From TrEMBL:
GO terms for molecular function: DNA binding. Residues 17-75 form the HTH cro/C1-type domain. This is Helix-turn-helix domain-containing protein. CDD domains: HTH_XRE.
Amino acid sequence: MPAGPPSHRRVRLGLALRDARNAVGPRGMSQVDAAEQAGMSQPKLAKLENAHIVRIKMDDLNRLIALYGIDDAQAEELRRFARSPYSESGTFVETSPNAAWWQKHEEVERDARVINAVHLQAHDGLLQSEEYMRRQFELGGAVSVEPKIRTRLARQRAILMQDSPPDCTFILDQACLHTDMGDPIMMAAQLRHLLALSDLPHITILVKPFGAAFPAATYGWTFLKFDSVLMRDFVSVQYEVGAATIDDDEALRLFQTRWEQIRGAALSEVDTRKLIRRVLTDTVKKAKGL
């Protein structure tokens, strides 16, 4: 077992290989069969998928790529991940419709011991009610809205309702409470949902009020922290057409400092709940045309 945690690139390499193996044929391919056909042992393949191999032989990787039928673009990405040092830190920028790669693999979030998130306009996906999701997807022009909703609800259950969930703290700008996307009835349901979630012992929801003495920010971000043997801590900064995943030690220290600053500028849990209730009252009146 390597001494230090793997970078998110190595974790992603292992997850991608596992997904590709499971996508072979109508029922996927077992680790035993894949290892035999690729000319390696099953324990070695398991370590590769679990990011427990420090040095990856490119010949081994190329045989797996050919066996699984991975396309050229993804294959080159996987080779780049394999060439990166095991514990290399830095910033990985991705442009794709599914840029938050770790959200596709719930075990990454499930294994986090802490999830800290800052949001300026939209509510975090883990906090969204079904009505809020639907409105957001529909206005965003998404196709196949219902499957997207089912996927997000399943992710919420897997992360927030597991036996040992992460300690989650979400800081929302007050603007999040007022951005009803033209549907105050939906927003009233979302605000009630926030109040219900804030009753759970592992979920803390705080609001940074409009008048807080804090520098204006242009983006939100999520900070995931892990036990050291699993993988490196990282920050994900998401934007319209992609995301940056950051696990550089100095950058993480800066994000931790910024987190402490914004948490200090936010309302307390008690005052946050009071504010949400006031906004809920106003939103209900708006929905009724009062």
